[in-house]
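Lecture 7 notes: from sequence to structure.

We start with a single chain of 331 residues. Read the sequence below before looking at the structure.
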Amino acid sequence: MKLRVLGPREVERLLDMKPCIDLMEAALRALSSGNAVVPLRQKVSLPDRSGLLGLMPGYLGDPRSFGLKVVTVFQRNHDVGRPSHQGVVMLFDVESGAPLGLFDAGAITAIRTAAASGAATRVLARADAGDLALMGSGVQARTHLEAMRCVRPLRRVRVWSRDDAHAREFAEREAQRAGIPIEVTRSAEAAVKGADLICTTTAASEPILQGEWLSPGAHVNAVGSSFATHRELDATAVKRARLYTDCRESASNEAGDFLIAKREGAFGDEHLLGELGEVLLGRVPGRRSPDDITLYKSLGVAVEDLAAASFLLQRAAETNCGSLIDWGSSP
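Now the structure, written as tokens:
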């Protein structure tokens, strides 16, 4: 039996953003239609809280996929130039349980998270949206810029980061890569004012986006946190928006942006209108008017990783990419 292994470079080469957006749409439809099994992620923290291990198992019905993402989160790695999120996605045969693939989780997460935001933007943002504010200047800011370019023609891009030097480095590098000018703003408010596409991609635990800054018609992709105690948006921002998520159960347990504002009395459970998959299936209405503010709260769920891993396994076999390792014994 052979096990296919793909490192970050192979994942990035094979998993293009445009097809990944379509993959995420299909996976989220499957989740909302009951054709998937996604338990809540399990987290194990080190005693000193310096890092944690996250476990995300799942089953996806189409394409039939069975597997697990294991990822560590060490935020202080940023201080020494290492990624904060590291790990693997493991894919198993649905018929026999045999391991089929072992793929770099960091690269998959970077691409599929932005691709899910691309799917949300495609269905929730105004058709003429094109003034993009990126809050954060790390890996997710880079992949979200790519995803937004796939689903909307961008006429303006602004970036803000708590590290001004990092924001300037990001703007110079990504402007050259994308072939479009990127402005660096000195304040979060200046980045957001007038923007109709906003992506929050930070590790913030306290709000960096104030609701009073949001213009009518804006769409927000909030992806920075999957902790019940952390939020990037204040209560006003969430209250002003039509709120959607990838998975209701995850949002009800892990979405600090939603849970903290609810505890503060800003709204009740009914403010969470539905899953993105339900909007894609036509079961829940999305944007109703050009002036609606829409918000997609991304938690990241295992079906997204499984859809990406299944695609990668097929593409790797077609292109003879990665490494094949003898694993176990054949019957």
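The longest strand covers residues 52-61. Keep this in mind for problem set 3.
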